[in-house]
Amino acid sequence: MLCVQSGSHVPRGAVLFTVQHLLGCLEGGGSPTDGFWLYVGFALVVLVLLFVLHWFQYASLYIATYRESANRRVSMAETLRRLPLSFFGNRDLSDLTATMIADCSSLDQMFSHYVPQLFASVGSTLVIGVCMFACDWRMALAVLWVVPVAVALTAGSKKIQDAFGTKNILNKRAVADCIQEGLETIRDIKACHRQERYLDDLEAKLAAMEGSSIRSELATGVFVCSAQAFLRLGLATTVLTGGALLLARGAPFLYFLGFLFAAARLYDPLGVVLQNIAATFNTKLQIERMRSILEQPVQAGRRTSAPTATTSPLTMSPLPTGRARGCWRM
Predict the structure, then answer these.
(1) Cβ(266)–Cβ(12) below 8 Å
(2) Residue 46 · residue 39 · CB < 8 Å
(3) With a threshold of 0.85, does the pTM exceed it?
(4) Residue 104, Cα to own-chain centre: how many angstroms?
(5) Least-confidence region, from 4-18, 59-73, 188-202, 288-302
(6) Around 277, how many Cα atoms within 13 Å sit in the side-chain half-sphere?
(7) What digits encode the pLDDT tens for the residues 257-268?
(8) Is 30:20 a contact under the CB 8 Å cutoff?
(9) Pairwise CA distance, residues 111 & 100, whole Å
(10) CB contact at 8 A, 300 and 308
(11) Which of 32, 86, 104, 250 has the least C-beta neighbours within 10 A?
(12) DSSP three-state, residue 329
C-alpha cells in the first residue's frame, strides 16, 4: 500500500516533465514533437510500474490479511473449546456467538481497510515531505505545516470519541438483549399481560440507542471534518508563498506548479488518514472483549485422549447357563 500511495505521484511527475519540455520548446523555438517517443516509453514504464504495485498491494492487502483473519478465528475457536463450562453457565450462547461474529467482522474490516491505508498514507506523506524539503524548504513548509495540526486535532479527541462510542455500543447491546429476552419469554409476557410494559421498555432503549448514535457520529464528524477542512488551508498558504517567491524570482514557475500539484494530491490521502484514525478509535471495545475471552484461564490437561497402560479393553461375554436369555456381562 505504501508503494502504491507513493507510486501514484509518478504520473504527476511525468506531467511536470512534459510541461517542462513543452515550455522549453516554446521558449527556444523548437518543435514540440521532439522527444515524443521518449515520453511515450516513459508513460508505458509508469503504467507497468503501477500495475506491478497494485498486484503486490492486492496480494499483501487481501490474501495476507484474510489469512490472518482465519488464524484469528481458529485461535478464538480453540480458546472457546478449552474453556471450562462455568464460563458458559451465566452467558447466553446465541448472544455470545453473535457478539463474537460481529467483533471478528469489525476487526477484519479494520485490518483490511483502515490500518493498511493509515500506515501507507503516513509513509507516503513522509516520503513526499522529504522530497519537498529537498527541493524547496519554503514551499514545503507552506504545504505541510497544516498536517501535524490536523492530526493532533483528531488524535486529541480520542477520549471524547471513546466515551461516546462506548456508550453507543452499550446501548446497542441493551437493545439486542431486550429483543432476545422478548423472543425467549414471549409466552410469559403474554400470560402475565406485560406486553405494554415490555414495549415501553424496548422503545425507551431504542430511543437511548438512537440518541447515543447521533451523539457518537456528531462527535466524530465534528473533529474529523474540522481537521479535514483545516488541511485545505495549506492550499491557500501554498499559493501565497509561491506567488511571493515568483514575484521575488526566488523559485521557478515549474517548481510552483509542481508544489500545487503535490498539495492538491497530498491532502486526499491525509483526509483518509484522519477518517481511519477515528475508525480505529471505535474498535476499542471490540478488541477489549476479544482480549478478555482469549485471556480466560483454560482447562488443564491433554488435548488428546491417549490410552494408558492401566486401561483394559471392554469385553462382552455371555452369562453362565441358568441366567435369563439375552443377558450379557462385561
Answers:
(1) no
(2) no
(3) no
(4) 12
(5) 4-18
(6) 25
(7) 778 877 877 887
(8) no
(9) 16
(10) no
(11) 86
(12) strand
